[in-house]
Amino acid sequence: MKKSLILLAFMSIIANVNAQWWKPQHHYYDTVEYVVMYELTFREDTAHLDCYRTENHMLSIGKKRDVSSFRGYGTYRHNMELKKAGDSGLTEELIKTGRIGKVFSDVPSSAIRCSIFKNMTSKNITTIDHIYMQGMYEYEESFNAFNWQITAETDTINNYVCQKAICDFGGRTWEAWFTSELPFSDGPYKFCNLPGLILNVADTENHYSWKFLSIERPSELMMVYEVINDRIQTTKEGFFKLQKRYKVSHTIGDATTNNDFVKKAVEYERAKNNPIERF
Questions:
Q1: Which member of 129, 216, 229, 259 has the greatest number of CB atoms within 10 A?
Q2: In whole angstroms, what is the distance from residue 272 CA to residue 279 CA?
Q3: What is the mean pLDDT of the chain?
Q4: With contact defined as beta carbons under 8 Å apart, do 199 and 39 qualify?
Q5: How wide is the angle at C-alpha 168 spanned by C-alphas 164 and 174, nearest 5°?
Q6: Angle, nearest 10°, between helix axes 2-12 and 260-271?
């Protein structure tokens, strides 16, 4: 139901979307050597303690081992479908006929919509995110944002011997299980800076929990890529302040609208009071 509300509200404001977004161009960094799949279980609304959502995320690790990208699997599928439509010249036709909505309804949308790139050489994390009607934003963080305390506790996850590490990040305390059997200083979301791939990571309140599903070599050619849009360079603090300011009134629509679908979608957005990072 929530997904339908958001989709309908999205379609109601579609005319305001920048056309460049519908004809995305991609910058490719490297071919993908490994795709790591995770399942995120999370709670967006702390007022409803039993209201959890799940979605799949993907970490793409390049063959050169110096760059990776992380995004929701639904976001990846949407990007590829939109690119396919743009390359074939069908984008405007899909919008005019309303069939563009099918592209989104056929693929589960990702609640975590940002794209995250990690550069293993510069030890930088680049986040690309958008604020509706404000534009695309980009900000950087250092791997040093994760000051892990590695413990002696071990466990076996999916046949990999793992070790536990703890750190504070984004206003939460996180517990991660990493394995040196997969020698990538990487993991889901922004998590990195451990001597091995992070398989599972969750905050101590259990509001956000990523669990490892699989690691595979892709069966077809895949790329570590970013969608090219004009974007505003900012700081993490600046982005979060602006995002908070426009969260309700500019994300989906005005709560005073006569459109019932938009009203309900705005109410849903307002209920999302539990972001991953509390900054």
A1: 129
A2: 16
A3: 82
A4: no
A5: 45
A6: 120
Ordered by start, the domain boundaries in the chain are 2-145+212-271
Dump pLDDT digits (tens) for 4-37. Answer: 444 444 443 333 344 454 566 778 899 999 999 9
CA nearest to 166, candidates 150, 179, 188, 153: 150
pTM for the model = 0.82
- Give the separation between CA 21 and CA 76, rounded to whole angstroms: 14
Instruction: Return the percentage of the chain with pLDDT > 90, whole number.
Output: 51
Reported as a single tens digit per residue, the pLDDT across 75-102 is 888 777 777 766 666 556 666 666 656 6
